[in-house]
Every structure is written in C-alpha cells, then in structure tokens.
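Data deposition worksheet. Section B asks for the primary sequence of the deposited chain exactly as it was used as input, without tags or linkers unless they were present during the calculation. Section C holds the resulting structure in token form. Section D is free text for depositor observations; keep each observation to a single sentence. Incomplete worksheets are returned to the depositor.
Section A, Depositor: J.P.
Section B:
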Amino acid sequence: MKYFYISTFTWLFGIFSVFSQSYLATYLTTAAENNPKLKAGFQSYLAALERIPQVKALPDPQLAFGYFIQPVETKTGPQQFKLTLTQMFPWFGSLQLSEQTQTYRAKAAYEDFLQNKALLFKQVKFAYYELFFLRKKIEILKENITIIQRFKSLSQQKLMTGKASYVDVLRADMALNQIKNDLKFWQDRIRATSIKFQNLINKRKIEIMLPEQLSQTILPPMAVLEKKLINNHLVLKHDLISQQFEAKAKLAYKKSLPKFSLGLDYTNVGSDINDSFKNDALFFKIGMSLPVFRSKYKAAVNEAKYLQDVSSQKKEAVRNNVSTQLADFYSIYENNLRKINLYQKQIKLARRSIRLLESDYSSGLPVFEEVLRMEQKYLQYQILEQKSFTELHKTVAAIQFLIGSLKP
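Section C:
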C-alpha cells in the first residue's frame, strides 16, 4: 500500500510536470534552431565530416608528358615523345587509419556541439525559472498589498470609533510604501530577464508563457546519477580525442614504412605510316619510397602518444570535476526539497496566525504591530517557498547538464 501511494504521488507529479514543462520544451527547440553559436558548432561538425572522404582516398595519379626537342635516334626510329602514368599506394592499412582518425575527430566535434547545446539548454532553463520566480514574487507582493490594505481599512474604521490609534494607519501606509517600491523594482527585473530570455532563444518580442506552479521534480538516487556521468559530452569528447591520437600514432608508424608506386611508360617512336605504333615502347614499372630519415617518423609517433596521454588526463580531470559538481548540486537539491516542505508548513501557520490576529484586532486588542510583523513573515515564507521551487529546478537543470541530458 505504501508503494502504491508513492507511485501514485510520483505519477501525479509527473503528469503535472508534463503540462508545466510543455512551454519550456517549445522554447528549448526554438533556441536550438535559432541560436547562432549552436548553428556555427553544427556547421563545424559537418565540415569535419567532409574531411573523411578526403583522407581515405588514394593520392591522385600523376600523368607526365615529355617531348624530345631533339629526337633520340634508335634502330627502329626516332623517339618523339613520352607519356608516364604513375599511382602511389601508401602502406597497407594507412588509408583505413586516416579515415578512423578523421572519424574520431568528427565525432569529437559533434560532442562539442552537443556540449554547447546542453549549455544553451541550461541557460534557457535558468532564465525561464528565474522569470517564473519573478512573476510569482510580484503576485505575492500584490497579494500582501491587498492584505495590508484590508488591515488599513479596518484600522481606519476603528479610528473613527476611537478604538485605534492613527499610528496604526501610518504603520500600514509605511508597509504599503515599502512593498510598492519593491514591486516596481521586481517589475523592472522581470522586463530585463525577459530580454535575456528572448536573446537566448534568439526570438524578440514574444509573449513568454509560464506555468502556474513548478512541480517537485524527483531525481533518482545519487549512485544512479554517478553512473550517468559517462554521458557527459565533455568527457565523451576527450575520450574520442584520445582515441583519435591513438589512431594517429599508428598512422604515424605506417608512414615510416615504404610507399609503393605502379606506373606505365609509353614512348612514341617515329616510323612510316605502314608501321605506325609498331615500334612504340610500353613499359610497366613498380617502385617504392625509401623512408631512411627515421627521426621524423619516430617524433611523429611520440607526439601522437603524448597528445593521447594529454587527452586521457583531461578526460580524467573533467570526470573528477563533474563528479564533484554532481555531489554539490545533489546536496543543494535535497536541501531545497527540505526547504519547500518547511516553508509550506510555515505558510500555513503564518496564514492561521494572521486570521487570529485579525480577529483579535477586530475585537479591540492592540495587536496591529504584531499583525504587521506576522504579515511580513507570511510574505517572507511565500517568497522563500517559490525561491526554493526555482532553485530546485535550476539544480535539476544543472544536473541534467552534467549527465549530458537534453531533456526539458
């Protein structure tokens, strides 16, 4: 039965989350389609792909034409011109390694693109949740203005009957002035944050749709998230770069081995019209390069191995860094869950206290100053609750970025 309650609770939150996140999913798609930096990153990946057919192809064959300015006389006639066709072939497996090296490079470029996309999504989410918090804060301030105005009206009525001091009215005005001033400040902030959000999705002058409430997103245990860190795009990128240099070291060694060439030589020998082509010479030839200067090839192999080690060390450093960040963010996530639970309890108590104080004040007890203090606590707890909801979702967005997730 306990499991049923938990499952039902999670399911209901999941359904609510789907509706509340639908707007955000649309904005993330818009950002991915419109962001110029992301477009540039994808074009870089496409450019890297175009290198693959270039590196896996054989060198172009060479065709040479030679004309004898002074024909060489032979027994069969004068040699007039010569044609040579030659094709070079690298050592066996060199082209496959060249293709492999460039493929790893292209995949690393794609992971770099996905890393920038995940970062953009995190920034969009942060701005979106900040807009939600600012809107909620403005709503809470307006609600509290209504509460204080109600107490102000009550104090004015009691003043007319001599049951209250004019000081109560002045205190209410002071509280109203402070909240109204805060309200104008946060209204300015929401305009500035809206511009920031529009710039992130690269779409100006749009109405930004926000959910009525954010749900308590439930994350899996820390141990499960730790295993997902292998999907971090920066970790994958360095892993691919390491594999690229491993293949490059093998390719450097292959280049230290001989290259082969196959060719044909055709020599035209002049003769009378009846013996045309009869005395022409056709030669098949085979050759190979002699890589005798070994130091440069050894240096190329060592360079690739050093760079492979650099990439492996960077991968390990990134892995440790994201693991540390995950632990920090998960701690913040759990703390925000506790804060939400606390502030919801405090709001209920503060609301009940305000109703009791209002009753006491109506009955003539001099508790107006206590009313304002309790109203201030009620305002504070409401704002802190929404702030905790916002920080909870920001933390989830940060964790999604760390594990390479591109979900809304």
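Section D:
The longest strand covers residues 62-74.
The chain has one domain: 2-34+90-256+291-402.
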